[in-house]
Each structure stands twice: as structure tokens, then as C-alpha cells.
Request: fold
Amino acid sequence: MGGLRYTLENVLLIKRDLTVVTGAGLACLLGVFIGFFRTRRALWVYMLPLLVLPPAAWVTQGVFGHISGITLGFGSVVVGLSVDYAIYIYFALQQTEMDTKVAVSKIMPHLWCNFLTSGLCFIALSFSSIEVFKQIAVFALVALGLAFLISVWVFPGYFKTSEKSRVKKMTTHITPLPFNWAVTAGLVLIVFGAWGVTHLALNSDLSALNSTSAVFARDKQTAEKLFPSNSGALLFALGKTPDEALDNNEQLSARLPERLPVSDLFVSDKTRQQNLNRWTNFWNLARQKNLQKELRQAGQKQGFTARSFDPFWTWLQTAAASSKIDFSNWYNPLVRLGDSSYAVVNVVPNQSVYAQFSDGIKAVFVSVSGLQAELTQRVKNEALYVVSLALLFNLIAVWLLFRNIKETLLCFVPVVLGGGFLFGCLALLRLQVNLFGLIFLPLLVGLGLDYAIFQLMKFRSSGQEPSPIYPTRALVAAGLSTLAGFGVLVLAKHAVLFMMGVCALIGIGGTVLVSLFILPALWERYVCKNS
Reply:
């Protein structure tokens, strides 16, 4: 029931999920392609992930020495994100008569900011002390960087074709909400989100991050009956050397109301020598002769010969010097710590009598429930820290793009309202949100900003009239592609991947809808009329 079996159980499930999610993601992307592109050259848009994901995995493997299954599962997310740049380039070139270089240069500010907002969220994630978050950050940054470079420098030459007339016929017309309706909808989403935050069911149990088989669940239930984890604790006796740790464990045991079983089976060199001396002193020649006489007499009455006990006496005379009994062949409580010190591990009840001996020098007491609470709080703090960094980094990036306070703030409207929609739906559906579901929050910031920036750049380029460089069809196709790559994680059986998929499906869907139906009315009222 140790960590190794947990790992193996999770690995098997993640492998199954990768197969299902990858197949479903490709099917959904094919649906987006059929609905929005239908040209052979546009196939390069969805070939892009095949070019960027393997190098991203290799780099991550090289940096960390291994790659997590959760990181590989996140590959479906990167698929959806990486095609966005190619989609924007494709539609910009197909919808305008401009020269390729001119059209690319005009859409370049949006692409740069798109890359920065997504990239900065992953950079913020890299500041986490949790390794799997760091792996995801490196994996995504490499993949998105390669996707950006290929989309801008390689694909334009292939996308500029004579098929423009066919693409122009496949336009997408979406009528934004009137201002009053947009404000009302925004307020409803804010109230809905506030209600969701107060009613959110956050599952802080770290075991909720594991997904295991039914056989494992039964074995765990049996183990809990024998060794209740919530009432258990670990008491570590520390030392600079193995012998010092064993000696401190013996001293600790002597001070407790009940001795530590480990201290009697695994002893220091000093105690071992004392035990041997006591053994030798006890079995002196006089005692051996008396016992030999008594055994011989008792044995004769039972039918034993006079030499029946000779092997015992021979062993007794050499036992003190040649004994090879070593319990560590079956169980070794001595572990080496990272700072080259050592510790003897004792499993004890979670009681204050054991905790009072924890001084951090000779002994450390760790309760399972206390450790879980500490780790839970740490993950929450990490999430808050990463989200704060993502907001700060992206606020600076958006300001540098627009240099306008109103437009900068409007870019964050889809983030806020999309987040409100996400929290409200999670609470309404009564979903147990595990701690790794929090990883989606910084991603929601970057993705929500991408769609808002697209809309504002479109209106900036030609007032209230749609710009051919920024067709609405491109935004819808990009949003659906991201959902196809990210949202399919809801099909995963693993708790972490499933929760990320749910958050993506609801959160990204919300930000796309806000960008399409609410943001235009706010821009027209607060920016266009005042310009």
C-alpha cells in the first residue's frame, strides 16, 4: 500500500486516458477543420502540434530527467493552444487582398501579445515549488514558442492562395448584446461567481489526486482498518551518523511511557556491545555446568541420550562472537536524509505524548493529518501566488500593447466574468474541486485575455466595422480548437486530468462567449464614443 503502488496505479490509468483523450481531441479538431476550413492547405494548421509536441517533451525530459504523466496529459491542452497562432494567420491572409508580409505585420502585435499572455501564465507557473507545475510550464513554453515561430515564419507562404473567394463565403456573423443587456449579463455573472466561490466544494484531501482501481480501493480499505492513517503519526529519531540516530532512538524510547518496538530490535553499537557483555556474563562456566547437569537428568527421564544437548552447548559458547542475526534483512527503519544525516522511523499513535519530544534536533514528530493539512495549505498558497503573478505579468503586457487604461481594463473583463461563470457552474454542479484544479486559474487569465485582445485589436483597426484582418470566424475557430484540445480532458478517468478538463470546458467557453457578446458593447460605450 506504499507510494510505489500508488504510482503504478496512476500510471496505468493515465496511459489509458492519454489514448482516449488523444483520439477524442483529434476527432474534435477534425470537426473544427470541417466546419471552418475545408481546404487542403489549412491542414497545416492541425499538423502544427505534431511538429511542436515531441521537441517540447524532449526538452522537458532533458531538464528534469523524467516527464510526468500529468505533463503528457497536458499535451492535449497545448494542442489547442498551439494552433491558435496558425488559425489567426490563416484567416488574416485569406480574408484580405494585402501582400503577405503586410498582412502578417499588421496582425503581428496581436500575435505577440497572444503569445506573451499565454507564455507569461506559464512563466508564473514555473515559479511554483511543485515540480509537476514546473514541468507543465517548461513543456508548454517550448511548444508554444515553436508554434509561434512556425506560424509566423513558415506557414504564411503556404496559406496565401487563390482560395480566398471560397473562404470569404464562409463568414460568421455574431450580433453582440446591446449595452444594457451586456451590463446586466455581466452583473449576473459576477453575482453567480460570488455565490459559487462561497459554495465551492474544494476537496483538499491529497488522496483525491490519485485515481486507482477497484482492487486497490479494497486493499486500501483493509489497510485503513489495520493502520488508520488519520490516527497515525511518525516519530523520527535523528543523528549525524546511523549509530547516533539509533542511540538517540533508544534514549527517546526510554523516556516514553511505552517503549518503541524499533528501539529493542535495532540498537546502536554501544547497546549491542552491552547486550553481548550481559550475555557473556550470564552464561558463565558455573551456570553452564549446573544447567548441563539439570538438563542431562531431566533428559534421561524423557528418554534423551547424554549427548543430545551437545549442539546447544557448542552454539552457546560461540553465539556471542558469531551471531549473524540482522532484522534489517526484513525491515530497516533507518533512512538517510538529504543533508547526509540519518533518521530512525517509528510509527506511533497521533498523541501529544509523542509530539512533546519533537525538538527538531534529536527528534521530529509528524502526524499524517497535520502533514496533509500543511501540504494542502501549501498548494493553496502556491495557486494564489501563481495567479497573482499571472495577473501582474499580463497586466504589464497588455498595458504595453494598448497604452490605454480603459482598453487594458476591458481586456480583463472576459477573465473576471469567465471566472465567475466557472466558479458558479462548479458550485451549481456540486463538483468536488481537487487541488490541481487550481492550476487552471492562471491559464484562464491568459486564455481570456487572448480572446479579448483579438476583439479589441479588431475594433481598434477599423472602428465599429469588422476588420478583414480580424474576422470573427477566426476567434470562434480558435476558441473551439482550444476547447477541442483542452475540454476533451473531461473524458479522462484520472481525477487531475478530469478536473482540468471540466474547468477548461466551462472557463474557456465562458471567456469566449463574454468576448463575443459582452465585450463589444462595453468597448463601444467606454472607448469608441469617447475617442
Notes: The first strand starts at residue 201 and ends at 203. The chain has 23 helices and six strands.
